[in-house]
Amino acid sequence: TTFQDGGEEVEDGAVYNVTLKKVQIQQAANKGARWLGGEGDQLPPEHTVRQYETSKIRAIKAGTLEKLVENLLTAFGDADFSYISIFLATYRAFASPRAVLELLLDRFGSLETSSHGEVANLNSLESEMVLRAEIASVLRAWLDQCSEDFREPPDYMCLLKLLDYLKNNMPNSDMESRVQNLLKQFQNQEVEAVDGFCSTSSTGLVDGEELEISNPEEFSSFQDHVVAEQLTYMDVMLFRRVVPYHCLGSIWSQRDKKENKNLAPTIRATITQFNAVTKCVISTILGTRELKIQQRAKIIEKWINIAHECRILKNFSSLRAIISALQSNSIYRLKTTWMFVSKDVLLMYEELSEIFSDHDNYLTSRELLMKEATSKFANLDSSEKENQKKSQKRLQLQKNKGVMQGTVPYLGTFLTDLIMLDTALQDYVEGGLINFEKRRREFEVIAQIKLLQSSCNSYCLIPDQKFIQWFRRQRHLTEEESYKLSREAEAAADTNILSPKSQKSMVKRISTLFLGTDVFTPPKEPPPKSSPVGGSSGESTDSGSVSSCEFNHSETEDVCVTPVSSPEDPLKKVQLRPLHAAGSPKTLAQGSCSDKGSSSKGSLSEAGSGSDSGSTPSRDSGSVPSSACRALPVYNRQSDGSCIIRVSMDGLQDSVYKSILITNQDRIPDVTQRALLKHNLEPDAVEDYELVQVISEDKELVFPRDANVFYGMNSHVNFDFVLRKK
Description:
Elements: E1 2-11, E2 14-29, H1 31-35, E3 48-63, H2 65-74, H3 83-90, H4 97-107, H5 125-145, H6 157-169, H7 174-188, H8 216-220, H9 224-240, H10 249-252, H11 265-286, H12 293-312, H13 316-326, H14 329-332, H15 335-338, H16 343-355, H17 363-372, H18 385-400, H19 411-424, E4 428-429, E5 433-435, H20 436-455, H21 465-473, H22 479-497, H23 500-514, E6 559-563, E7 574-578, H24 585-590, H25 626-630, E8 642-649, E9 657-663, H26 668-678, E10 689-696, E11 699-702, H27 709-712, E12 720-725
Parallel strand pairs: 8-12
Antiparallel strand pairs: 1-2, 2-3, 3-5, 4-5, 6-7, 8-9, 10-11, 10-12
């Protein structure tokens, strides 16, 4: 079979793409071969005669609503076999169910039209039968694929209109009884909750129950695979109920309007469940203040293991929810706690995080979803060697059960694709015709969602009411609460770690870590792109030094290696000091960390060691060579072509800032991009922001677009900068 582009055909109110399809319909032996008694399929090509047939395929490219509805009746005759499915999945973007039904029944249902839209003889019974069969075929497909379109409480006008048509034209048919049953079903479910599993309000609880912070012991009693299975069960129930047209960009993008608060309820339900899982992870880790460091680390390990079980079950929704929670600022900043997470579990976490890397438009997760969409089981061949045996063992247990698995996707990827398509392609083309090529492109995404929904029928999971009740009882922490608890937990961890017995060893560990020795490998792909131990984003590589500690008021109680001055040798000893209460200059000054008015003496450094010196501090004595320390960049002083500035976001409190190391090579775009990364904003939005230095309360220095920040800044005032949207 070969295809050839046949160009376009233009009719009144419609434009069609034409494709010529050439198909071989017969192969026979030629005259000489027949004389020898040969058969056509056993002879070489030169001894055979082939016959071909060329057919024309017409696919509507653009048209008026009337033409698009008429094409529902003629699509099969034009060999456009997927048209009905595409139309039914996407028409809500440009028409209502009532408008389509009225055109189909009133306009075409009352005319005697042949299968190709030509007016037939009024006395032609055959034409009437063909038309009736075509309309019945469209209605049957509509009820099969999009029965939710007819859910219009309390009147159900479209369903009643359809029922009236069937009584007059197809009395006592199977379709008539089907529509009657559907009407009764809708009337009995006028108020239908999309799903109750993800409810975290008191209305979703049994009488007498109250929301509560998770009990660590109760959470630990649930086995990892049980938690993963129950999260998958809830996700499957919600994903199977997703109405595909709710995902269309033109519909989902309107959700924030006040009049659309009830728009796309099936999508909102999946998002609510996703957020509930994320908040559950955070509350179990931070909700109990009395937890020891090791206990909190064990809970983090448990959630990573649960995420791995979700991966085995091919539940990418809860998997991403757990990873997102662990990468949230309040969890990721628990530097000391992360140090107690075992190496094998960290490797597993890194691999799971790689799945959702934003590199190349989330290419890894897209390829994985395509690969496993309809496969029976997860493909774990790429697992780290340390976790390979465990993964294969769990996967083998799943296979031994003899039950195939479906795939639950992260729905946000599809929503993003559909919004991008809606933004990039026009709704109407020249002449005011509806751009149906856009709908074909959208259907490519919708079809993937439908395929995955179908695969979810393969799951065989039984709800565990004990876990579901526990999950629904969880009180979720607000961002402010979780951040406050995170600071308290890290402060308590620092206090425990800095006991007299452990102080010497911790000085060695952290100083070695900051100076570049591979003592601890933090998880990859954090949202702020910072290590859970060091907290810096590594921008100091421009100057050849290793960043050690991000000093900012929003992340206090960090443990930093601080040069402490003494009368004998101001830069001889290294001492471990915690930062104290945020936003208090007085407290910070007492802690020997530099504030706005501090001098170089006793100032907090942000880089680990100058690469120029080539020297390394002694791990036993904790001393730092004076030549290395003098090269360290500091806040409020330019030294050796580098310095540290503080950048806050316009509109936020001044005390919430990020410390950034700059060199004499850095220009405005470079510094702006680093500042955006530090503040967890999109680094690609550099052109949308301007960087200004605060000179005084009523004065500021605005930098040109490509200015050199190091040489252009005012070095006689505090190195305080503001990132402001243009």
